[in-house]
Amino acid sequence: MNTRRKFLQSFAALGALPLLSFMPNLKKRQKKYTEGLVVSTWNFGVKANTAAVKIMNDGGNALDMVTAGAMEMESDPTELTIGLGGLPDREGHTTLDACVMDSIGRAGSVCFLEKIKHPVAVARAIMEKSPHVVLVGDGAQQFALQNGFPKDEYQNPEAQKAYREWLEKSEYKPIINIENHDTIGILAMDKKGDLSGACTTSGLSYKMRGRVGDSPIIGAGLYVDNEVGAATASGLGETILRSCSSFLMVELMRQGYSPLNACKEAIQRLVKINSFMNIGDYQACFIAVSKEGEIGAYSVHPGFTYSVWKNGEHQVLTAGSLLS
Ligand code: ASP
Q1: Residue 211: CB within 6 Å of ligand 1?
Q2: 95: alpha, beta or left, given left = phi > 0 and alpha = psi -120 to 50?
Q3: Which of 142, 52, 54, 164 shows the shortest CA–CA distance to 100?
Q4: Nearest-angstrom CA–CA distance, 91 and 114
Q5: Which helix (H) or strand (E) holds 320?
Q6: Domains of the chain
Q7: CA angle 98, 104, 259 (to 5 degrees)
């Protein structure tokens, strides 16, 4: 038996104990929440949350809930910011980014995907059926087609019209509107208290061809740790990518921060890291859920709404913000 195998076997015999000693769980955990909950970005999230709750009531787990919620948004052919109805890149092609992460730490992500209606389902298939985490572009499309996702040539007439108007000036300025964004990030806890998350978007409108934002990037646009909590993001992806915000929020919750304080701290960190940029030129928005079922949200600029289903009720709430 080679030395490496011997080492791995003796390590396995020790169980998870040595790992735990390097990863102290700093916060004393309270009782986990087992009533089920869903939280998602923006007021359109109510639609996603409704689909997720239906799945929960039919016996689905947290992964099924977030997949259903995200797919509901991708199914709307008039939605200009998610799915095939989304505004195109600067060359006129709608390209899609999505990811999922589940309660046992699995993750799947698809970037720069074209002509497939449900990127989030492709991300889930990558997680469940391939040995990989991320597939991009033509390879991702090929994987989707091979796994039974049909090619879909749909083009949203409204998005095409907006693109033709944009072409008249072709101003390439990746500035994101403060109150109206592109991404559905959805976090769910099922009745066992297990957490999962998903994120799906057509990304920044009129983006450079090939551009990928934070939304499909595990740790930036989404992160789930079933021992601690989950977090997701919307806003100018470049700022969120630089600060690895979703992973940061989960790690802050591990240290005892409430979801709200984790969101606030992560926003402050993002602003600091992106301080070479003009803060007036971007928005970033976060939501987080703890294992105890607490929910938090925060953004750089005012105007960020988020949708919650908890205790049998739907609510649209407005997050606090760093700037007023
Ligand atoms: N985060 C998305 C992106 O950068 C856009 C958004 O959420 O508004 O692609």
Answers
A1: no
A2: beta
A3: 52
A4: 13
A5: strand 320-321
A6: 33-321 (3.60.20.30)
A7: 70
Question: Which residue, 216, 213, 212, is CA-closest to 199?
Answer: 216
Cα dihedral 289→308→265→185 (10° resolution): 80
Q: Does residue 245's CB lie within 6 angstroms of at least one atom of ligand 1?
A: no
Element (H, E) at 4: helix 3-13
Q: What distance in Å separates the CA atoms of residue 250 and residue 35, rounded to the nearest whole number?
A: 21
| Ligand 1 atom with least separation from CA of 204 | 9
Q: What is the pLDDT of residues 221-256, one digit of tens each?
A: 999 999 999 999 999 999 999 999 999 999 999 999
pLDDT at 26 > cutoff 80: no
Which residues form the catalytic set?
Answer: 183
Sign of CA dihedral 245, 246, 249, 254: negative
Helix, strand, coil percentages (3-state) for the chain, rounded to 5, are: 35, 25, 40
Compute CA distances 195 → 35, 166, 198, whole Å.
12, 40, 11
Cβ of 176 below 6 Å from ligand 1: yes
Contact 241, 218 (CB under 8 A): no
Residue of higher predicted confidence among 24 and 196: 196
- For residues 199 and 214, what is the distance between their CA atoms, to the nearest angstrom? 10
Give every CB contact of residue 281 below 8 A, 6+ residues apart in sequence. Answer: 175, 236
Rounded-to-integer distance, Cα 283 and Cα 175, Å: 9
Computed over every residue of the chain, the mean pLDDT equals 90
Ligand 1 atom closest to Cα of residue 185: 7
Taking the centre of ligand 1 as the mean of its atom positions, its distance from the CA of residue 78, in whole angstroms, is 18
The gap from C-alpha 157 to its chain's centroid, in whole angstroms, comes to 27
Tell whether ligand 1 has an atom less than 6 A from the beta carbon of residue 235. yes
